[in-house]
Amino acid sequence: xxxxxxxxxxxxxxxxxxxxxxxxxxxxxxxxxxxxxxxxxxxxxxxxxxxxxxxxxxxxxxxxxxxxxxxxxxxxxxxxxxxxxxxxxxxxxxxxxxxxxxxxxxxxxxxxxxxxxxxxxxxxxxxxxxxxxxxxxxxxxxxxxxxxxxxxxxxxxxxxxxxxxxxxxxxxxxxxxxxxxxxxxxxxxxxxxxxxxxxxxxxxxxxxxxxxxxxxxxxxxxxxxxxxxxxxxxxxxxxxxxxxxxxxxxxxxxxxxxxxxxxxxxxxxxxxxxxxxxxxxxxxxxxxxxxxxxxxxxxxxxxxxxxxxxxxxxxxxxxxxxxxxxxxxxxxxxxxxxxxxxxxxxxxxxxxxxxxxxxxxxxxxxxx
Length: 368
Hints:
The chain has helices at residues 22-26, 43-56, 114-119, 121-157, 162-177, 205-208, 225-238, 288-292, 297-300, 302-340, 343-367; strands at residues 5-9, 11-14, 17-20, 31-36, 61-65, 73-78, 83-87, 102-107, 188-192, 194-197, 200-203, 213-218, 243-247, 255-260, 265-269, 284-287. The chain is an alpha/beta fold.
């Protein structure tokens, strides 16, 4: 029987630039394989094949998707084995904070024809610089979009009944947690709900919330959705529950979802670009607008809101175009590297990692 597969992002293209939450997903690992090598050297394929193999063996795996390339993976974590494999090539910064983590660096680029790469160094450097520039242009655009989004929030914050918002928060603290509490320190996993990619906004909400009681938070920008989630997350941590905190892939300072699997629930911001409607009998809507915002706010500010929406959409569209450009340049770079790679050597590298994982599995089994 195949193991459970959870899909999410550990990094993203945000209004604050490239944002990295890798270390959170790496906490507690005792064996970590860090892959080095340029685009097209086979890192993503290696990660995917090993992940699929481990899932077929019945292990739960976490798939870390790549925000820069919809078809690539950044890593796979096997929680039960406390092991993982990640792409450690820039811009990913892999710095596990726990001293017990044994890091195995794997240079996948050793399977490349170095002479051919050296002959194309000028082209590689040029493409790499152009990719960086395209990403920086995208980040500048996202920052501008966030400033516009702040204008949007201001309208609703001015019409917010904060007392009602506090009452709603307390209501859901009691509903979700009751009087339950664990005498232990929580494990907190910080991730991104989705990401802005070359193909637009992508998320894995259906996968992450499968089998859980789901609360779909509706509202407007500035209607208190993120604040509600932050307070619910803080409450769960204080009560000792393990909690998954999903940050916004656009504004990493905001939260989009929390999951407490021990209590069987997920509560998430269900507005665009990750808008979902109830599809399960147990799904419930939490309407922040109707509960906490002065009635008629939409109508009273319709012209201003329409202008803000138009400017925001334009800024986001232009930024995504820069990501698409970066992806196109990255594809050119991948072709250069791929043409120099010895696929058999890459397969040998994968087999070596799989062998080390098998040996590690045996040692873990003996220790348990």
